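The passage that follows is intended for readers who have already worked through the single-chain material. We present the inputs for a multi-component assembly, then the predicted structure in tokenized form, and finally a short commentary. You are encouraged to pause after the input and sketch how you expect the pieces to fit together before reading on.
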Amino acid sequence: MVKPMTKTKFLERLGAELGIPPATLREEAPLNSFKAWDSMGHMSVLAMIDAELGCEVPPGALQKCKTVGDLVALVGSKLES
Amino acid sequence: MITQIASHLPRTVLANEGLAQLYPDWTAEKIFEKTGIRERHVVDEGECASDLAFAAAERLFAGRAREADYLLFCTQTPDYLLPTTACVLQHRLGLPTTCAALDFNLGCSGYIYGLSLANSLLQSGAANRVVLLTADTYSRLIHPQDKSTRTIFGDAGTATLLSKESGSRLHSFVLGSDGSGAEQLMVKTNGARFPRADGLPTTTDESGNVHDPACLYMNGPEIFNFTLKAVPKLVREVLEKAKLSLDQIDLVVFHQANAFMLEHLRRKLGIAPEKFVLHLEHCGNTVSSTIPLALEGVITTGRLKPGMKVLLAGFGVGYSWGGCILEW
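Having made your guess, compare it with the prediction:
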């Protein structure tokens, strides 16, 4: 069941998938600075976005994301303000 | 329509412990946690997909007349560019020369396509007994330093006998293709477009996986993203065609891609764990052989009982997908 999610909650969930404390997850942080941002990390994040936001990610869009902020923007329309 | 299923796994086993020695960042348990696979069987030097299919077919024909009027061989690793490997297998298996034989090149969806072709041949009266073989040797296509594919894929062969006399029934086939995803799972060279790797770059990704154009390339996240859209739609369409609800399905057998993907799809679709078949811990992702291996498993253990309705679905390389209902 998809529930509304705030940006803060999304960052918490993203941190959990990537093994990063949410407090240190800054939007300008480059994703490739995280060890867990490999192909399994991509799949984990896709699964989290699918399960918790019910959001379709266009083909190739995830791999174009360079920073945490890019990921937030990718799902932005599904986040509560 | 399905009378019997037999299989063959090559003798050599590549266990997670062996892979963990090659990839220092990973442990055997981590590989299992990520993939649901503990070991996969791989061919030895000189062992071909046709050898695996042959061994599976020999088991299928044990104690049975070698009668078939159609031999379908699903493989992406044929013996030769030509002739079709199915002709070689017709002769090697001692099947009559009245037997039609052809290869078709599909991967993860291949078994469903084979069932669809066999079902149509039987229903049209063009054939009375069809042998559907699947086999691949992806291990021969994988770069030793590409852990994203080497941890996933195993080699196997299967043989399925389909005949009109069988009590089981196949129906409600839904098939589809989307070639826009062709490059997401590909061996680029050794075909007519790029006969050699000359001039094509070899790259290394952020995780240290080597991508050589002469080897298998898989963009795992993109394939996963494709399945998130394609598989729920496929399941819905098969159920609609069969006029069944998910509650009326006794077992669900998906292509055994990897446990992470399967578990996510299971939850997304609301399929109860007791109805969902997982069969990859000791063989890995064997491409077009995963569904018949899983079916053989539930037949052998008695989990599949007469009268049960099974939803089958294959999806992947192409992109290509297919689903149907098997009434056992």
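Commentary: The radius of gyration of chain B is 19 Å. Chain B has two domains: 2-166, 171-327. How closely did your sketch match?
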